[in-house]
Amino acid sequence: MAQGIGPTAFFDKTYDEALALSEQAHAYLSDIHHKNVSADTPVDDLRLRCEAFRLSTRLMQVMAWLLNQRAIHEGELSAADVMESEEYRLGSAGVCRDDSQHDHPAIPPAMGDLLDRSLNLYIRTERLDDMMQNNIH
Fold first, then answer.
1. What is the 3-state secondary structure (H, E, C) of 25-78?
2. Per-residue model confidence as pLDDT tens digits over 7-22
3. CATH value at residue 27
4. Spatial distance between the Cα atoms of 95 and 113, rounded to a whole number of angstroms
5. Contact in structure between 54 and 115 (CB atoms under 8 Å)
6. pLDDT for 20-31, tens place per residue?
7. How many structural domains comprise the chain?
8. Which domain holds residue 51?
9. Is 30 contained in some domain?
């Protein structure tokens, strides 16, 4: 299929999942920000904040990619043009694929869950991006 990632039901499910996870992450991160939550040590506090940025980065990358797919489905962008330009591709793999801190004791279990779910979503989206790239070329 030359257009996008496939049937709209599949796309809609992935989009809805990404949006719901983004909303959950936003609520969680807002809550810990407002409660001024920090870890026991400065190093662990930095680790916690870095993982919060990693979570946000993963979700922003996935949402941007999905919005590009929606633009392809609606005829606003061509699949070939999107795949030829790196700015439309899923990015930040080095940051987004790193899960080395998910299980660290300084990471609260709820954040660990969000990190794991966002990583799984990112990896699935990465596979879709690769499949689309292979279909275009």
1. HHHHHHHHHHCCCCCCCHHHHHHHHHHHHHHHHHHHHHHHHHHHHHHHHCCCCC
2. 567 778 999 999 999 9
3. 1.10.8.930
4. 18
5. yes
6. 999 999 999 999
7. 1
8. 8-136
9. yes
